Amino acid sequence: MLQLPAALTQTTATRCLAELVAALPAEPAGAVVNAAGLNRFDSAALAVLLGLRRQAQQLGKTFAIAGLPAPMADLAQLYGITELLPVASAA
Fold first, then answer.
1. Cβ(65)–Cβ(35) below 8 Å
2. What is residue 20's predicted lDDT score, i.e. its pLDDT?
3. Considering the domain 2-84 in this protein, what is its CATH number?
4. pTM value?
């Protein structure tokens, strides 16, 4: 499972996306990103998730997010991209 950092803002987004994309090929067919530890973020975090989703699709993998904080889900809803950020089913 891929892990988001505790803080993901415009300052760290490019580096974070690069690290996650580099780790993506080693993930199973159903790539899951754990966002439970994310406690400081801005809209750049959504861009990272969308970029990672795009890369997963290019690799033929499904993509889902576990532990999405409610404020981030609200931000995704505000931007109208909720359907692009699927929630991982409970294992």
1. yes
2. 97
3. 3.30.750.24
4. 0.94
